[in-house]
Amino acid sequence: MITLRIACALLVASAASGCSKEKLNELVDQAKETATSVASDVSSEVKSATEEAVAKVEATTQQVAETAGDVSGIGDTTGKGMMTLDSPTQFAASYVQLIAINPGRPAVLKISSSKDGDDETFPAFLLQANLSTAGDLNALAGQTVSARLFAQKEAGGTIWFSPEDQPVPVTIAVEQGKVTARIENASVMSSSSSQETAVSGTFECVLHP
After folding, report:
1. Which superkingdom (predicted)?
2. Which structural domain range is residue 25 located in?
């Protein structure tokens, strides 16, 4: 539409040399009106295109922000873990719980991918340590405890476990209310073979609700 109007204006200007003064003035006025209309259309279309581009940028920015928010939030409410068995294995949740059976008696430290048996998903793991004294999680900061380990990648699949007389060392770190458990330089047995398998892992835990 804009290109067509510009062409018309040029045709008016080129024909002006063979016209009377009155006709020339009329053609000039028409050319001015056409130029004004073209400028108005250009301004409107540029404004519309700019607004559309800004809207697209804002929508893209919002989408990126939401995606970043989703990514940064992974594991914040459920914890997460990674363990190297026969291959690196990711765990979607990691809950820590200090169970005191009786006041003043030794407690049990439990770290698991499941809050309870009803919500178990795979891969799954359980770390359980009998502590020598009662206390709270903050008191375990910097300590290494001996724990039984059980892990299974899929339902009905191979179970990796530490025998009762061969627990794995688990180092506990507590920083700003966040509990991290690490396994290093340990080995486990496999239900599918009699061979020992080296194991290591890191678990970023949330408190059991």
Report:
1. Bacteria
2. 2-72
